[in-house]
Automatic annotation (TrEMBL):
Entry similarity comment: Belongs to the helicase family. DinG subfamily. Type 2 sub-subfamily.
SUPFAM superfamilies per UniProt: P-loop containing nucleoside triphosphate hydrolases, Ribonuclease H-like
EC number: 3.1.-.-
Species assigned in the record: Thermobaculum terrenum (strain ATCC BAA-798 / CCMEE 7001 / YNP1)
Protein name: 3'-5' exonuclease DinG
Amino acid sequence: MAAERIFVALDLEMTGHDPEQDEIIQIGAVKFTQTRVLGRWGTLVRPKVKLPFRIARLTGINPNDLNKAPVFDAVKDKLRSFVGDHPIVGHSIGNDLSFLAKQGLALDNPSLDTWELAMLLMPSLNAYSLQGVASALGVSVDNHHDALADAEITRQVFLGLLARLRRLNPKLVTQVIRLTDNVDWPMKMVFQTLYEEVWQSQAARPSGNIGSLLASKGITEEDITSNLLSEPPRPSPLQPKEVTEYLDESYIESIFSPGGELSKTFPGYEVRDQQIDMALEVVRSINNSKHLVVEAGTGTGKSLAYLIPSAIFALKNNQRVVISTDTINLQDQLYNKDIPAVRKLLGGKGKDLRVSLVKGRNNYLCLNRWERFLRSGINTPEEAKFAVKVLLWLQTTITGDVSELPLTSDEKQFWQRVSATEETCTTRVCRNRKGRQCFLFRARVEAESSHLVVINHALLLSDLASNNSVLPNYDYLIIDEAHRLEDQATNHLGFEVDSRALHELLNRVMDNSNPVRPEGISARLPVHMQGSRASNASVEQVTNIAMRLAQRTERTRARVDEFFASLGRLLPASMGMQNGYDEHLRLTAEVRGGEQWEGVLLAWENLKLTLRELVDEVHHCGELLEGLEGLHIAEYEELLAEVQAIEVFLQDYIHEMNSIITAPTENDVTWISYSHRYGTITLHKAPLDVGGILQEELYSKKKAVILTSATLTTDRNFDYVTGRLGLYEFQQLMLGSPFNYQETALLLVPTDIPEPGTAGYQDAVESLVAELVLAAEGRTMVLFTSHSAVQATQKAIYRELARHDILVLSQGEGSRHRLLQQFKSNPRTVLIGTRSFWEGVDVVGDALSLLIIAKLPFEVPNEPVFVARSETFADAFNDYAIPQAILRLKQGFGRLIRSKTDRGVVVILDKRVLTKRYGVKFLTSLPNCKMQKGPARLLAPEVKRWLGQNSEERLSVSRS
């Protein structure tokens, strides 16, 4: 970059995130070049609104100091003068500029966003906050959240990013310049000035525009669309041994025992009897080709208990073991932590252990679609940013997995245009399987040669639904986080469609939303024929079929709207009249026998007719294109694949929708839902019983299937999960936690508050939550079963806790990851959440010392699948609703004690565990901790005592 170019790093602190409601309270600015600081300027600003407690705590700003500060109008001219016309550098600078403009200072200077630049140059970061980027670059972050200090950090971060930018291949920089040449993308300035630096070092600079300069250096359009990666060596597929070599139980036991290989390899390793028991049962399952279900309490170390036997068996026999998880966190833990530990344990043999992580198609970049995306032209700043991000990432990625790429919500729509899809992933279409091998194919080949293949439940079930066309053949399967398998199977073996999805499919045929640039195959067909060797007659045929496709699509589009309108008439008048979440109407025999159903049937027959006519036209189009092979039609393979894919999708929609409307089976649950948020109606189908499907299509076809989780039993038996998942031929093993819950965990239940759903309950919850959080001095998570309860409680306790310097965070205020990071970073915090926080939250240590469970987590009684499945039980409440709620309660309870040294309190604000006959089932299903019950007024003192403070009054000790 030019040595004397001047920049201004800017940072603001505000009362909140909304420029329409919040105001600036502090400004910091640093003027600098690449070699020196030219000046610093900063000030507090007096807002017209009250300083929120959480902002005061975050920034350290005293409200009294703000009262003495100047108003914004008194300082805006000084800021304008300091900034001048220099480029403004900031972290998420667009937000700061919006606040300035809202308060009367609209700056039109070029702006450079360090957040955006970091995402381009450092795609592997876990966090892109200013503090996270600074730490990754080695920049000190003392006094973070002071505006002037943050402006200084921003300056150093910007210079650090420029240093990284200079390390890029100059050819790559020129590719970026060409891609963004005609787009008004602010970050282009950084690449252009770097590009100019390169040319300044040349003795003679060619004249002309950027395009001609690139051409003079030999950079062509083809270079931009080329992947620079070389093809890695292709490993050989596994060839299982003809004679199976079984595992030695005593050898496996010795690995886990005192003085064994685990203790020798990892000095901090703690021997756990439960882990040894599980490992030995896994050995027996594999050796004897028996299925196994294991509940392994928190702290068992179940991952190593199944990984070590599996890895040794796979190496001995050249066999493949597939491991399926539900959460990304566990996938990452297995692939990046546990499996490398197993390799280390195995010593020299560990180097031979081949492992792959496989995901669904749309997680991988398709090089063909990427090239097509670039050839279509970069027309907007958003497209430019996405294209450059992918281009830079391509130079370092080995997997092409989108999880490596930090995409904003807006950029994810572009990913759908470049990711692998079923229709593009065919031998006929994919030119990148030779030479520049495609990422998806590379992942599949790696899986074929791997001993351990780590997947998720979604991919496992997609493979099941597609007749095992996704994964390589395997005989041994481990399903971790098995408590989530039924829900995932319900989702992935079901079907749903709304009018938006159908319209999007029709748009792939014809989309006139932009009259200047129509999209879809009907618009592309005549264009692709230009310059081909096809006869005039063939070109005319293609043109005619394109016109017919457009006409059929328009008629079908109208029928789609009519059909979903007919579904809407089934809904009760009360639906859609209030703000809230999705409402459901199950398509029962009673609904199907009503007057409005005749209208649905008629509308469906009309839609089905037009869909079939469109399918015939699309099929005809495909046949016509197949007859034109070899005639140099532009992007012929991709065009034909798109036509064929549309035909398949249309046929699938016809089949699935018809099965819901006119031919539901006994194992189908069918319903429609209304979304208040989008105002849309969705048609659904789900299997009534997934256990039978899993048994017939999965378990029975494998030699050994091992299911495990920390929460699989209810009332100390596997009966419920056996029925739900079809585990009738499975051996069972129930292992408690190695943690001493009697010494580390206290369960409290109030005896004198109203029951949930009765008058006064919510008021009592709000009052008790505030008291308990104060007693714990923060360090609290509160779990609810509804968003409305979260919002009501947050509103009720916020001010009271703020007075005691305790911050309230609630679900919906940011991403789950961000909320958890905030919660972990400051002990004087309470985090309130609903279903997504009941599991998968791992907060070790004092940051979480008090867990409050507002009520027993029963399923919403009108949820269609729940209702339909309930009807299959003679006593649905006791045999279905209660066990399901117990498993969820166990998951929630498990958030508290995450290590051997953790200590804390669980409070259940639902006295039904004491007053109802079923309550004992909930209590006996929990870890064997100390339990106390008594008046609500004594809960807070008991929390103080247990967490290390004194209390004169004590509750009665009881377990029932």
